[in-house]
Write a structure and sequence with these properties.
With about 210 residues, the protein is an all-alpha fold. The protein has 10 helices and no strands. The N and C termini lie far apart (about 90 Å). This is Telomere_reg-2 domain-containing protein.
């Protein structure tokens, strides 16, 4: 009686044949076969079909999101200088108060440098004023390389990489202070990400010199 109550109040999967003697072997086989039949004939086709439909739906959505017009015009290229110049001018001559305080905050300075890099990248190589844009980014990038916070130095290296992406490597090579910092990074830089970014920049500049 105790065994029967134990069996009736316990899940089939929790039972062990060495400890429960009241479970017939034939009943075990029937239960196992029933479970296998339900697993094979019941939910499996439905689940596999639903997964396939979900996969198709996702692939269609991703394909639609990636679809762009081949003849799309970069309208930002002609306006980039009007965004970059005022931003850099405000950085060079901040007004007393909030602007001066903001430039003393590493997180704000890092976002400023990253924003410049994104705008240079958005302008693209086809921008007629790309050299002016790159020159405006050299000064802030140099200041960022000297900063004590790794986040600021990372964003400064990102900005320099966007200058190189524009095809303005000569502007970086003409600035000896930047080259001095980049050459010293493998030995003096404590941040591993900065070291890797600096190494990539040096490799790109070296390739440009050899080409």
């Amino acid at each position: 009686m105790d065994n029967q109550r134990l069996v009736s109040g316990t899940r089939f999967g929790d039972l062990h044949p060495d400890t429960i003697g009241a479970q017939p072997e034939q009943k075990e086989r029937e239960n196992v076969e029933e479970l296998q039949f339900k697993a094979e004939k019941g939910s499996a086709p439905h689940e596999s079909g639903r997964d396939a439909r979900d996969a198709v739906g996702q692939s269609r959505r991703f394909a639609a999101a990636r679809r762009t017009r081949a003849n799309a015009v970069n309208r930002f290229a002609g306006e980039a200088l009007h965004f970059v110049r005022p931003l850099v001018a405000r950085w060079m001559r901040p007004t007393p108060g909030a602007a001066t305080w903001a430039l003393s905050e590493p997180s704000v300075l890092a976002e400023f440098l990253r924003c410049l890099g994104v705008m240079l990248e958005s302008a693209g190589r086809a921008c007629a004023e790309k050299e002016l844009l790159a020159r405006d980014g050299i000064g802030p990038a140099l200041e960022g390389l000297r900063h004590t916070e790794p986040l600021v130095r990372r964003c400064s290296l990102f900005l320099l990489s966007r200058v190189v992406l524009l095809g303005c490597e000569e502007l970086v090579l003409e600035e000896p202070k930047i080259l001095t910092h980049l050459e010293a990074y493998p030995f003096r830089e404590s941040d591993e990400t900065c070291r890797r970014m600096a190494a990539g920049l040096v490799a790109c500049l070296s390739q440009h010199l050899l080409s």
